[in-house]
Design a protein that fits this description.
Length: about 220
C-alpha cells in the first residue's frame, strides 16, 4: 500500500480485520511485529524504530478510544504536543473544537465520547504531524460533533497527508478524501473513490468487494 504525499486515504474493513492493528504497527507500538514487508516514510525504513523515533520523523495518531490521563491537564498536554505553543494558539485551537472549558481538567477524565474526541483532535492539530492517522474519529460521536471534528480535520489535511479508518462513513460528508481502500483477509483488496467504495460496501457487503473489480486501483 502506497500513500503519496498530500493524499487523504480512507481505510474501510469489517470489524476485527486488523485496521487499528495496521495503524499501531505503522507507528511502532510494542507488541506489533512486522513479519513481512517494510514501512517506508520520507525515504527511510521504519522497521525497528521506536514510537518516539517515528513521531520525531513526523508521524502521529488520533486514537479511536483516547485514554484518560489523571494528573495532566489538557492545556499541559497540548503544550507537550507543541513545545512553545502560545496562549493565543491554544485559545484558537480550543475554541475551534469547543473544548475551552476542559483546558484545566485532567485529559479525558470524565469526558463524554464527543468531548474526548474533540480534545484528541486538538492535541493532534497542535502536534501537526506530516503524516497523521485517524482511527475512527466519527465513532461514538453525535452528528453535531462529527461535523465539527470533520471540518477541522479537513482543514488540517489540506496541507498534510492522512490515513483514516471509518465504518459508517459519516465523516466523509466533511473530509474531502483522495481515495479509499478496503482491508479484508489481511490484504488491501480494492480501492477507488471513497463515495463509490462506501456505496458498494453498503450494497454488496465486504465479501462483495473480494470479487468486485470495478474500483480497483494501484495501491
Amino acid at each position: 500500500m502506497i500513500i503519496r504525499e498530500g493524499e487523504k486515504v480512507i481505510l474501510f474493513g469489517p470489524n476485527g480485520v486488523g485496521k487499528s492493528s495496521l495503524l499501531a504497527a505503522i507507528l511502532g507500538f510494542p507488541g506489533y511485529i512486522i513479519k513481512q514487508g517494510k514501512i517506508i516514510f520520507k525515504g527511510q525504513e521504519l522497521n525497528g524504530l521506536t514510537v518516539d523515533q517515528r513521531v520525531k520523523l513526523g508521524m502521529g495518531i488520533a486514537f479511536q478510544l483516547p485514554p484518560a490521563i489523571r494528573g495532566i491537564k489538557l492545556r499541559e498536554m497540548v503544550s507537550i504536543c507543541k513545545k512553545g505553543i502560545s496562549a493565543e494558539e491554544t485559545k484558537t485551537l480550543s475554541s475551534n473544537l469547543n473544548v475551552e472549558r476542559f483546558l484545566e481538567r485532567d485529559v479525558n477524565l470524565g469526558f463524554s465520547g464527543g468531548e474526548a474526541k474533540r480534545a484528541e483532535i486538538m492535541q493532534i492539530l497542535a502536534q501537526s504531524p506530516d503524516f497523521v492517522m485517524f482511527d475512527e474519529p466519527d465513532s461514538g460521536v453525535d452528528l453535531e460533533n462529527i461535523e465539527l471534528i470533520g471540518k477541522q480535520i479537513d482543514t488540517f489535511l489540506q496541507s498534510h497527508t492522512g490515513l483514516m479508518i471509518t465504518h459508517q462513513g459519516y465523516i466523509l460528508r466533511y473530509v474531502k478524501a483522495t481515495r479509499a481502500c478496503v482491508l479484508y483477509g489481511g490484504q488491501i483488496i480494492c480501492g477507488g473513490q471513497p463515495e463509490n467504495v462506501l456505496r458498494d460496501i453498503k450494497e454488496k457487503g465486504y465479501a462483495g468487494c473480494v470479487s468486485c473489480q470495478s474500483h480497483m486501483a494501484e495501491q
